[in-house]
Specification:
Blueprint (H helix, E strand, L loop, with lengths): L9 H4 L14 E10 L4 H17 L8 E5 L3 E7 L12 H7 L1 H12 L2 E11 L19 E8 L5 H17 L7 E5 L7 E8 L2 H29 L2 E9 L11
Length: 255
């Protein structure tokens, strides 16, 4: 995260001014900030990230809240729900800068800046209508910190077809009482392409593979046929595997 706090960068900073509870309405928007970390700087990056979280706790920062995912390809995604568009105009680091002091805050951020090659920011829209979460919507299921996420890229001409297939997948999972639950997000503002992101929580990679194999058997030929249809609609797909990191996440004590 860059240290220079300019008006244009406040759209980036707003991801930390969040409430992780689901808002009312059809969708919940999440701002995502990704740091693409240099492999050689991974240890230093994590150290600074942990110091940042500890500083939030020590100073009882009330206007920052985020969850963090670290992927297998050295991406760190900081994620939070956007309450309204007005939050985008707020300097979310103001309280922290005041309590820590600008010099200490700037020094910590400068150390982090050296650790990554690039960063991107975009919005994801959680779609409850396409998500299969029979037990209720949650971002952090207990004991399920591993994530097997897949981005399904679609062209505008095939968007409605992909949406229809997603609805049919959910109906098929529900009909068979599948134990593999998932959330579906739509790409939003700032995303580099148009995609549906399917997020599946598991205890570990091995646990995911077991669930996936059992689910494929459960859905049988109908599931295989629907998946084959999906392959004719999407333009590409990209896996995003990793772990949610509670130790690199923060929420105010009163949340």
């Amino acid at each position: 995260m860059k240290t220079t706090i300019k008006k244009s960068m406040q759209w980036v900073l707003c991801l930390l001014c969040i409430n992780l509870g689901l808002a009312q309405g059809d969708y919940q928007a999440f701002w995502v900030h990704e740091d693409h970390v240099k492999p050689a700087m991974l240890q230093e990056y994590e150290q600074v990230s942990k110091e940042f979280v500890e500083a939030c706790k020590k100073n009882n920062i009330s206007d920052l809240s985020f969850i963090t995912m670290a992927t297998d390809d050295f991406r760190y995604a900081y994620i939070g729900g956007i309450e309204n568009m007005a939050a985008l105009d707020k300097n979310s680091f103001a309280e922290m800068q005041e309590k820590m002091g600008m010099e200490a805050f700037g020094s910590m951020m400068s150390r982090m800046d050296k650790c990554y090659t690039d960063h991107i920011d975009y919005v994801l829209n959680l779609d409850p209508e396409l998500s299969y979460m029979p037990g209720g919507m949650t971002q952090m299921p207990e004991g399920m910190n591993y994530r097997s996420n897949t981005l399904y890229y679609v062209s505008p001409e095939n968007y409605s077809k992909a949406n229809d297939v997603a609805k049919r997948f959910k109906a098929l999972f529900a009909k068979n009482n599948s134990k593999m639950h998932y959330k579906v997000y739509r790409s939003g503002f700032g995303a580099p392409a148009t995609f549906f992101l399917v997020a599946i929580a598991a205890q570990s990679p091995a646990h995911f593979e077991t669930m996936n194999a059992e689910n494929m058997q459960l859905l049988g030929e109908e599931g295989a046929a629907l998946n084959a249809e999906l392959m004719t609609i999407i333009s590409d797909m990209e896996p995003m595997r990793g772990y949610m990191r509670p130790d690199l996440s923060y929420a105010p004590a009163n949340n």
